[in-house]
Structures are given as C-alpha cells and as structure tokens.
Amino acid sequence: MQQLKTDFTSREDMAAYIQQEFPWLESPGDLSPYVGGRKAGLARLQEFKIEKYGKERNFLNGEVSRLSPYISRGCLELEEVRQWALQHPMSKSVESFVSELAWRGFFHLVYQEEGTGILADLEPPKVSLEKHQTTLPDDIARGETGLPSMDGLIGMLRETGYLHNHARMYLASYVVHFRKVSWRSGADWMYALLIDGDFASNHLSWQWVASTFSNKPYIFNRENLERYAGAVLPGDPRQGDPFDYSYEVLAERLFGGEYRPEPRRSSGNYQ
What percent of the chain has pLDDT over 70? Predict the structure, then answer.
C-alpha cells in the first residue's frame, strides 16, 4: 500500500497533491478558508473583538469568534478560551460569549451521559414530527431549493464547511419545519459538511430546533431573516415566499393548533 506524502512546502503544494491523488473527489484541491493548527488558532483568538460580540453576534455579518474549527479539532481548549475571555472587563459581550462556551460544554456533558442516545429524540417533540421524511431531498443537498436565501446558506456550507450559528438555525428550521424532514437526516447531512463539526453540539442543536430537546420549535420569518441576514443573503421572490408571515400565522401554517408562539415584545427577536 502506497504511503501518502505528509511533508509539504505550502498549503498550495498540499492541495495540488490531494488533487493528483484523489481526482474523483468533488473539488479535492480546494483549500479551506481556515488555516489549521494551534498557532493559527491562537492568532484568531487574539484577533477576536469580544467587546463587539454582544451586539453583533446574531447578525450574519457581525463579530463572532470563528474559533469553532480550532476548538473542535483540539487546537484550542474550551477552558483556555474561557479564561482568555474572562481576562477582559466584565460586560454583556463577555457574559454572552462565556455563556455560548458553557452551552458547548453542556452539550458534551449530555453526550457523555446519553452516548449514541442523542441520535434519537431525547424528549417528546412539542409539535408533530411523525410524518417527516427520513431522507434529505436532493434539492436541499444540492442547494437548489429555488429559495435564494436557503440556497445561499447551503452554498456557504458546501464551499467553506462553515456557517454562522444563526445561519445554522435558519437552515435547520427550514429543513425540519418548512420542508418536514427529520432532524436526524438534517443533522447527519450538516455534520458531514462542517469543517468545525462537533457531534454533540451539532446533533443536540438540531434537536433544539426540532423541539425534541427544547420546550418549543424554533422558527423564523421574513422580518427576522432580513434583519439579521439581509446584508449577507440574497433576497427571495415575494410570490410564494414561505417565510413572509407573522409568527402567529406561520405557526398555524406549519403546526396547525399544536403550537402558538408567545407574544413578541418587539419585532425581529428570534425565537
């Protein structure tokens, strides 16, 4: 068996070698936008403007850490990142960021307790999921749904292996609630494409969206999409737009009388 080459002079040299050895793969020579290794992870940590995180983290073009590829691959430790954050003056931004790290830690604790049990519903769903199809439709996998916003997100995922967390929620909600596909099928598909794929965080987050690990389904509407993602995503045709409804109307269309959203204090806050 031929031993693969491991010494390269540059990332481009490595990409050319992969293209040569695995020509049957889809875009085998394409380089990730993330440079691997601890050195690159530490550099990204120092570049992260944590003071902006609290106000901008929900916007697809806002300031987020983009540290997940380095944390998920062991280049940076979760506690190391938390300690770095706590060196900053305490603020809502720091508190929000540390809270997100805590969620990641919590998901791992759940995985330690449940093991492969996280591949099935951890709680009864709060809306009916029984008739959801178990195979991901080809148009979703290819990013050819006909909705430029969702196709844009799928394109980002396929091309870079990364999505902003809010974008992952949008896409998961679209797959599970708008297209009626099982959360497990969607979770497996996304996990296979993510460069920062974290088994526990990914699958439990899809369960959170589906309502099998939360007290309600996560849905979004056009107003929310335009507020938080409008600067990044292409627009969708107004005719037949599945998202262009109030949350109350949307909940009725998607779930019948099974779920009614709580009164919203202000427009744009996502569920």
Answer: 94
Tokens representing residue 64 in the block: 């987020």
Q: Residue 46 burial (CB < 10 Å; 0-12/13-18/19+)? A: exposed
Which among 195, 193, 200 is positioned nearest to 154, based on CA atoms? 193
Question: Do the Cβ atoms of 76 and 70 come closer than 8 Å?
Answer: yes
Top CATH class of 138-255 equals mainly alpha
Calculate the alpha carbon distances from 72 to 25, 50, 78, 164 in Å.
Answer: 24, 20, 9, 15
Q: Is 95 left (phi over 0), alpha (psi -120 to 50) or beta?
A: alpha
Structure tokens at 3: 């031993």
| CATH code for the domain defined by 38-119 | 1.25.40.80
Listed by start position, the domains of the chain span 38-119, 138-255
Q: Please tell me the distance from the alpha carbon of residue 17 to that of residue 124, in angstroms, as a whole number.
A: 49
Both tokens of residue 105?
A: 């830690």
Q: Of 3-12, 53-62, 66-75, 100-109, which range is least confident?
A: 3-12
Name the pLDDT band for 152 (thresholds 50, 70, 90): very high
